Amino acid sequence: MRVLGIESSCDETGIAVLDTETGHLTQRLYSQIERHREYGGVVPELASRDHVAKAAPMIMQLIDERGGVEAIDGVVYTRGPGLMGALMVGASLARGMGWALNKPVLGIHHMEGHLLAPMLSTERPEFPFVALLVSGGHTLLVDVEAVGRYQILGESLDDAVGEAFDKTAKLLGLPYPGGPQLAALAAQSGPTRLVFPRPMIDRPGLDFSFSGLKTFALNTIHKLSPLTEQSRAEIALAFELAVVDTLKIKCKRALESTGRKTLVVAGGVGANQRLREVLKQMTLDLKAEVYFPAMEYCTDNGAMIAYAGGLRMAAGQQDNADITDVLPRWSLEDLPPLST
Ligand code: KG4
Ligand code: ZN
Fold it and tell me: pTM surpassing 0.90?
């Protein structure tokens, strides 16, 4: 079947059309980053307005390219988690189209989209696996037995990893979203003697806490001020090393405690090169495997929603007509399995 996927949970409008049998995929992505940059973070009201302006024309264009509305068998959209107003834009478009075209509609969990994004590559992980989901809004370790069979092993008790990257980058004077910029600054540093803490590694369990690192960065900046270019780069490096090491320790623990041999890393921070290299080495040492989505599918996109939605719709799932809400907060554990 051919599904239209709509992603509008935060500051990217992602639209995709996926043929579930052939895998043929076309997509469009519009990033609002420039719009939010001057405010140093995402402004929810502006995000919703931009989705309204961009989503419908993008959908029309893509559908035209893929043979018109007649060729669409179903519409899937991000129902949560995310920003309420932003989610409502995609949900309303999807439901309106479904009603007008008399086609099924299905709301998809944004993090399930991220989690399954590596399946869009030719080298795909096999179930079961442990997933590390690291985005601007979430840090989760999940035991994935199959599609829809998720057990959360650990999560951040405060800031998400991407959020910690962005906040620390801001302290270093870098523009929003600072994650990739902080990583680029760190790459300019030579070795550093600065050492940032690895939060919560001494405690048992797989939860995370990243807000202390941002405070540690702030204190270090005060101590070393006025900052030279070299000390800025060293702070970025020390921060990045601490985050990556913490994630590595918890991923290793998760693989060992579950006995799984495959790790899947997804979400925006999954684009971080140092994280990729460190996790490759750690899994090699454990005689396990690690999979990452293609770079373009790490950050938010419509393809991952079309993929997750296509799987579920092909298995017969669809929203009841009385579903009118979106779910800004929604646990992966509440999702139904693909088939019962
Ligand atoms: O998954 P995503 O696109 O959006 C959410 O669902 O939140 O993730 C965005 C996050 C931002 O915090 C961004 O700074 C971070 O991913 N990010 C990175 C890198 N690329 C994106 N963080 C560190 N290093 C990167 N290379
Ligand atoms: Zn995301």
Answer: yes
